[in-house]
Design brief:
single chain; two-stranded antiparallel ribbon
Length: about 240
């Protein structure tokens, strides 16, 4: 959890839940697990329990102490819709987001089925955005579950992009983020996959954000596509 973040499409991270379990190929080289497990068994460290799932009630009100408006990525080190996160705790997270109306909260999940079940019943405010991760065409159905959610901004994180997403349905989607895998054993991403998605977004008037090419040394690969950076956001953000 941090008052600032190096993630290109957000300003800060807030982790009222930490730890997770893998559900698809996009999780194979999970950066959060790799980081957390370095500290397993270190007494007093926030990740003393490694990447085991843990709720942090004492962190629930943290965004209320940040007075300047910011984009906040919720649970960068977990998944709010993990099956072991009680619905009552999810409601407490939503209560904080609703109270901290000067911030914009970005929730991202791979647990699209639980999102689809719970989403229509949750107290959505205009400052709460919801996204799903889609790394390959095999899990493109996650976008269908996202469309059931009455969030003002629904977005897709196509990262790590592991294959072409030809035919991906962007109906009801307000923002698309694309990125390659980074870190040890990073799997390659082809330029034509990225260009195809960018062109689809331009055709359908969906803001397109290109996060990174990735690789073992992602900073050397950069994040420019066809001679420029692509940092588009939904109009609602004002950023």
């Amino acid at each position: 959890m941090s008052a600032s973040s190096s993630i290109e499409w957000t300003n800060s991270t807030w982790n009222p839940v930490t730890g997770c379990t893998k559900v698809s190929q996009g999780c194979k080289h999970c950066y959060a697990q790799r980081f957390s497990e370095r500290f397993r068994g270190v007494p007093g460290h926030p990740f003393e329990q490694g990447f085991d799932l843990r709720l942090w009630p004492d962190r629930l009100e943290l965004p209320l102490t940040w007075k300047e408006p910011r984009l906040i990525f919720v649970n960068s080190m977990s998944d709010l819709y993990h099956e072991k996160v009680p619905l009552s705790f999810i409601h407490r997270v939503f209560a904080t987001m609703g109270d901290a109306r000067w911030h914009t909260f970005q929730i991202l999940t791979k647990r699209a089925r639980r999102l689809g079940e719970l989403g229509p019943t949750l107290p959505w405010k205009s400052n709460i955005w919801q996204g799903v991760s889609i790394e390959s065409i095999d899990v493109a159905w996650r976008a269908d579950e996202l469309r059931r959610v009455p969030a003002e901004v629904r977005f897709l994180s196509l990262e790590p992009l592991l294959g072409p997403l030809d035919g991906l349905n962007l109906a009801g989607i307000h923002w698309v983020i694309v990125g390659g895998e980074s870190g040890p054993h990073a799997r390659p991403m082809k330029k034509e996959w990225v260009r195809s998605l960018r062109d689809r977004c331009r055709r359908d008037a969906v803001p397109f954000f290109f996060k990174q090419w990735g690789g073992v040394q992602k900073h050397r690969a950069g994040r420019r596509l066809d001679g420029r950076t692509w940092d588009q956001y939904p109009v609602a953000t004002g950023v």
